Amino acid sequence: MNHVKLANDELAQCTIAGLQRLMRKLAGHNSGHYYNNSLSFQERVCEEAESVAAEWAVAKYYGLPFEPAEANNHFKNKADVGNALEVKWTKYADGSLIIYESDRKTDIAVLVVGKSPNFVIKGWIPVTMAQRDRYRHSVQPTWWVSQNHLQPIETLGASIYAAAID
Hints:
The protein is α+β, with helices and mostly antiparallel strands. The protein has helices spanning 8-26, 41-62, 127-130; strands at residues 3-5, 85-90, 97-100, 108-115, 118-126, 142-145. The protein has one domain. It is globular and about 35 Å long. The model has no long low-confidence stretch (mean pLDDT 91).
């Protein structure tokens, strides 16, 4: 099943990591991408915490270890989860997977939707395939991949990209 629920103690750790991640971005480390400038500081902390929680949800799905505080130390230098999984989160159940120019071309992007504590892993796509002209956003320097263009998460482990998980 691609539904994952995090426990309250896990969510608390994600909140701490989310605050730390935002503070690093505000200090000029790990430049973030904010296209919604109307968010308050607290709302941004919540977004970062949800993003960390989505990463943990993918790790739980695959039975991989995950340390939220450590997740702040490998921004774009290391995969979010496993060897090469780049986790993308949105609160919108029908939301798109968004790829940035800074995303590593060797990674596999995984879309997670929902809000704490309940997440749904929607699917995956290699970053290089997501960075095609057909997905290019008309205003932002990003690529938006709708869910119907993602591979089911259940197929990743049996694909040629399975090594991304380990």
